[in-house]
Design goal:
- This protein is of the alpha+beta class.
- The protein has one domain (2-130): 2,3-Dihydroxybiphenyl 1,2-Dioxygenase, domain 1 (Roll).
- The protein is 18% helix and 42% strand.
- The protein contains 2 helices and 8 strands, in the order βαββββαβββ.
- It has an 8-stranded mixed β-sheet with strand order 2-3-4-1-5-8-7-6, with helices on one face.
């Protein structure tokens, strides 16, 4: 499945609430940085921010999160690739990382068997997720 992944600068939860109200969307998943248990420290000011969420409406899904890095309009959107087929995800990752910039290595997370993000050599942001 291809979708969009929107990155926010600390106001993801408010954006999700706004999209629910505006579109009648449904938040089908939401985890905060404080809920993750990956063995790395989370700053107190990040604990209530959204680590990962999925918003569904009209048969489509958009994933959203608060970024730990300052985002600017225009660089806060990713094309998301989500699939239960880990081989498919890793093949696509391996092709697009060539000549690109890896933001987050493709690795297991609290919400995914493998998750990572990169900017390809054409300047397009991609986020890959092996769905559980």
């Amino acid at each position: 499945m291809f979708s969009h992944y929107l990155m926010f600068d600390g106001d993801c939860a408010q954006a999700l609430d706004t999209y629910v109200e505006a579109f009648g969307a449904e938040i089908v998943e939401m985890q905060t940085y404080g809920q993750q248990d990956q063995g790395f420290p989370v700053a107190d000011q990040m604990k209530d921010l959204v680590l990962h969420s999925r918003l569904r409406w009209v048969g489509s899904e958009v994933m959203c999160a608060d970024s730990s890095e300052r985002r600017h309009p225009g660089d806060n959107m990713y094309i998301g690739v989500a699939s239960p087929d880990e081989d498919f995800v890793r093949r696509a990752w391996d092709v697009l990382r060539q000549g690109g910039t890896i933001y987050m290595d493709l690795d297991s997370t609290v919400f995914s068997g493998a998750h990572g993000s990169l900017r390809d050599r054409f300047g397009v942001n991609w986020m890959f997720t092996v769905t559980l």
